[in-house]
């Protein structure tokens, strides 16, 4: 009862307050909506004037026009604010897409499905940022992140430091477990039924694994590309995996058929007939007999020793029944870039894989497959890091005799090094070579042309595959640095010459040879006295 009585007494006051509020709002609205003139006053017509009605109509029409203009102005301002707000929103979205941060992953544990979806979205954004589906433009040749290669037993690595070796077993447990996990996941992916084929699927095992390459980008993750034996000769299975700082994600599972993929090996040459004979022995065994899907283009400069080189070619052609070769002769000063460019453009057939090679290179049939598997027209070019042989007379100087060439081709710290500063041996499709503009033909003599081409690919959207390969060797030969070279070329030539001779330890033994002999002599004398 008391509550009801209180409410009845309070009701008139509430109504009064509402009336006052409504009046106040009306007054404020009239003041806000009334357009302000420049201190102008509207003079009301006199009451007794004969034009009272017309005067009021004119005033009302003028005020109506001002209100209409004011409303139009407000609408324009609102439209401008909306456009600016939309623009700022788009900028914010672009920044979030370009620089997604792990803090953006809202892991609401009360909604596990949403948390999982957010986490997967973030991980997939890491895949999109990394060079998985396409290459990215890079500023210099040092900006490219090289791959490292591995088999079931060995890892072939570039950054050896003072304790690691160019070829070694994965001693560290974390690296060993990582590679085992990747291979097992790839095998599991291959054995997973696709739901399309009714035939009994082949069961893959780790023994079908041929080799893989991997590289880690510290702000994205690790990319793995693994190659397995296929269902027939010259067929392969390729699995691409990516670890975006979390679980490994399958990116691609594809069949790769290389049965009809021809490689055109282009060799520029001037003189050096004895080296060419050695090269043709390797070419015959690995290229003709074992691989069989190969063409040879020799671009010869000058005429000295030309007949001997042509004779070696013709003898190989007859003895091996090999007709897939081209001989081009140029009457001009030797230029490696010019020779490779002429050889590439001379080809008249379909799009072909080009392997730019030198006469002092030894390759295996497995490398030729790596050349095919790591190139893709419009997508990928292959820049293998070859293993460069030290001077055999220094390495085996303490032996009774120098081993045969095949016995020398082992990857060890004492026998050679990964030639990671060289970009001359490369595989790419002819269409990519022509589209990129080929070599810089203004460069003469030794060195420089390969780096310019490499930089062109880095500046493009093509993916550059850079990895050490176990089937490509640079055979030692004495290097001559000619006086005609520019200062920069001469410096590069001398650095290459020093690197080619022996390891730091072996060169140190030569430098301190006299001190070592003196020490041994003193040791003998002291032992005799005692």
- Strands across the major sheet, in which order? 3-2-1-4-5-6-7
Radius of gyration: 39 Å
Can you identify the CATH superfamily of the domain at 263-508? Spore Coat Polysaccharide Biosynthesis Protein SpsA, Chain A
How is the CATH topology of the domain at 263-508 named? Spore Coat Polysaccharide Biosynthesis Protein SpsA, Chain A
> Please, what is the average pLDDT?
82
Cα end-to-end separation? 129 Å
Instruction: Assign an overall shape.
Output: elongated
- How many extended strands? 16
What does this structure look like?
With 530 residues, this protein is of the alpha+beta class. Among the domains are: 144-191 and 203-257, Roll (Nuclear Transport Factor 2, Chain: A); 263-508, Spore Coat Polysaccharide Biosynthesis Protein SpsA, Chain A (Alpha-Beta Complex). Helix content is 44%, strand content 19%. It has 15 helices and 16 strands. It has helices at residues 2-33, 52-98, 112-129, 173-191, 273-291, 306-320, 336-346, 365-373, 392-395, 405-408, 430-436, 449-458, 487-501, 504-511, 513-529, and strands spanning 148-150, 155-156, 167-168, 209-217, 221-229, 235-243, 249-257, 263-269, 294-301, 325-330, 353-356, 361-363, 380-389, 416-418, 426-429, 463-474. A seven-stranded antiparallel beta sheet has the order 3-2-1-4-5-6-7, with helices on one face. Helix 5 (273-291) links the parallel strand 8 and strand 9. Helix 5 (273-291) packs parallel to helix 6. The longest helix is centred in the N-terminal third of the chain and has 47 residues, at 52-98. The protein starts with a helix and ends with a helix. Residues 1-8, 35-47 and 99-107 have low confidence and may be disordered. InterPro entries: Chond_GalNAc (IPR008428), CS_glycosyltransferase (IPR051227), Nucleotide-diphossugar_trans (IPR029044). Pfam families: CHGN (PF05679). It is found in: Golgi apparatus, Golgi stack membrane.
